[in-house]
Structures are given as structure tokens and as C-alpha cells.
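As described in the Methods, two query proteins were run sequentially through the folding procedure within a single session, without resetting any intermediate state between them. The first query and its resulting C-alpha cells are shown here.
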Amino acid sequence: GEKRHAGGYGPILEHLNRLDYGHLTMEFSTPEAGDCDVFKDLRDDFEIGLGCVGVTPGQVDSAEEIASRVRRVAEHVDPKRIVLNPDCGFAPGSGAVVSLDETYEKLKQEVLAGKILREEFGD
């Protein structure tokens, strides 16, 4: 069956900061991911692939909802280091079914959020 994990990134932050990588992908579209304050203690050379698009079947986040998640993280991380990503893919779990039309709409909202944020933060 599907395993569900909850909890913030705080307990593993020390280990993340020791990784010899320049890009981290972090799921952050649900409250289970924890508080955005964790980003202030993350190495400042990481590019962040921010999971900001929910993948729950039947729910499409608006561009403004997505942009709002990114803004909260941008309080702690230079927005130029943030790459917008969906959380973990569009079939989270063995029983999840997400239609192509719904996937398209989710990605369309992600693109619109990116345009909103570029206007706010610049390229």
C-alpha cells in the first residue's frame, strides 16, 4: 500500500546541507511538509526545485495559490534560486488516477504562477 510521510525538513536539514549537489527538490504544497522557516537554514548555494503544485486528484490549485506558496519560501531564499515543480508527480500512490486534462490544467496553473512571480521578482 501507499505510505504517507509527514513532518518538516528540520530533522534532516543538517544532512541536506552536507550533500555534494547544487539542486534540491522539496515537496512543499501540503501542510505536512512543515514550516517555510527551514529554508533560512538551508545552504545558500542550493537551487530549490520547490514542490508548489498539489498533486491530489480532483484538486487544481489556482495560479495565485501556487504563487502564494512560492512567496512564502522567497522570504527565506532568493527567488532566482527557486524552480517551480509539482509535488512528486501526478499519480501519488498506486490508486491515484489523474487524467491528462487535469494534469494539463495543473501545469497550466504552474506556468501562470511563474509569470505572476516573474513580474513581481523580475527575471
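Immediately afterward, the second query was submitted; its sequence and C-alpha cells are:
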Amino acid sequence: MRSTIARGLYVAKGIPKPPAVNMRKMVGANTAQQVADNCVFAHSNRAGRNIGENLYQYKIQTGIDACKAWEVEFEKFGWPSNLLTESSFQTGIGHATQMGWWKSSMIGCGVAQCFDNNYQKLLVVCHYRDTGNWINENMYNSGATCSSCGEGYSCETSSGLCTV
């Protein structure tokens, strides 16, 4: 999804979205498994985590289903502009915008099999650094792909993402 957005190939609710000048490529981190292992479907204390966090719990087969469900928020609710306003956030696109937040460059996901009222469910927790979903800030800046990666970053032309 991030590469598709970065290259200007992403379409949400039939509307092509502009390319990103500074979408960072994510690398792995391992902060979410402990949260998933707790089998509690609730966000962890934001003050203590200093990261973005997505949760998903359902009768699903794989953790990939969670990421697909989060991305579907763009298709279901649209994405009116790159500026995340309180009203656009409240439509239900917060998981998708966190996945597409330009500055997030680390992701760690944990998956645990949990039981809820004798039903087995899969709990998926993903942590993102840097935190996204800042109200009245842009999810990303639009313009020529990779044209403003910033100091210490270079463009990976095949993906359109800025890498360290």
C-alpha cells in the first residue's frame, strides 16, 4: 500500500491519490507481540508506548487479513485530502491512515490466538514508529515521487519509498 501511494497509483473510492514526496520505507521492529500475547482487545497506554498502534480481532485465518481490513477503510470511507482533520478521522479511516503515514518508518506486528467466550480469535497488534494520525497534519506531502526524502534518506526508485 505505501509504495502504491508513494508512486501515485493508489485509488480510494474511485479517486486517484497523488504521489508522495517523502513516504518512508518501513523496517521491522518487535514491540507488539507482548501486547498481542495479553489477549486484551484494547489500545495500550498511549503515554507509555509513544508509538502508533492498530488492533484487529476477528475470526480470521492470518494476520494479513487484518492489514487488508485496515486498508479497506479507504475504500469504504474515502480519503478526502491528505490533511487529516478530526472529521475525516472520525469517519473510520484511522487504521489506514496510520499504515500510510509518511513518517512511520518502523513496524512491528504481533499475533496471538485468544479465547473470548469460548470462541477462538486471532488478535493482531501492529506498532508504528513514528506515530501517525496527527490531527491537522498531512498523512503525506504530495508531489513528485521521492522528491523530498530529506537528509539521510535516498529514493528507492522501484518502490518510490525513501530509505535510510
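The CA atoms of residues 134 and 153 lie 23 Å apart. We note this only descriptively and draw no conclusion about the first query from it.
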